[in-house]
Write a structure and sequence with these properties.
Shape: globular
Strand content: under 5%
CATH topology: Cytochrome Bc1 Complex, Chain D, domain 2
Largest sheet: none
Helix content: 55-70%
Radius of gyration: 13 Å
CATH architecture: Orthogonal Bundle
Bound molecules: heme C
Order of helices and strands: HHHHHHH
Structural class: mainly alpha
Number of strands: 0
Length: 111
């Protein structure tokens, strides 16, 4: 499985319940009253380093718990790569994405 596919699969399992599948912060859990996370599609988080995302997953952030016990380091980096792809796809028209990235984003999620 490629890094991005792995990242997408792990993101959909561990992050999308709160952050939503597109990272806009409207996950299912939020609909039920959990504090809403910020959207990834804002300047501060577009400019944040890969390491910042890695550390948020590792140590938690404010109201968000640490995922260190459930997401091993290699998967944290895969998730970071996938979040970058989500951010990039929001910024760029999909037609301008490299073929390989477009294929990853359009592919059916792995089960
Ligand atoms: C149970 C809900 C929940 C889950 C699951 C969750 N988060 Fe969060 N996340 C939050 C909330 C709420 C915040 C805002 C926390 C605050 O500001 O107090 C947040 C904030 C963040 C931020 C923003 C940090 C910043 O600098 O503003 C990032 C990045 C993030 N989460 C990544 C992830 C990733 C990656 C995953 C999956 C491994 C994940 N989250 C899973 C609820 C969640």
């Amino acid at each position: 499985m490629t890094l991005l596919r792995r990242g997408r699969q792990r993101f959909d399992i561990f992050c999308s319940p709160c952050h939503g599948r597109t990272g806009d912060g409207h996950g299912m859990v939020v609909e039920r009253g959990f504090p809403a996370p910020p959207t990834y599609h804002q300047d501060a988080l577009r400019k944040a380093s890969d390491r910042h995302f890695y550390e948020v997953i590792s140590y938690g952030y404010g109201a968000m718990f640490s995922y260190a016990a459930r997401v091993p380091p290699a998967d944290r980096w895969a998730i970071v790569a996938y979040i970058r792809a989500l951010q990039y796809s929001r910024e760029a028209p999909i037609a301008e994405l490299p073929e390989s990235l477009r294929a990853e984003l359009n592919a059916e999620p792995d089960r």
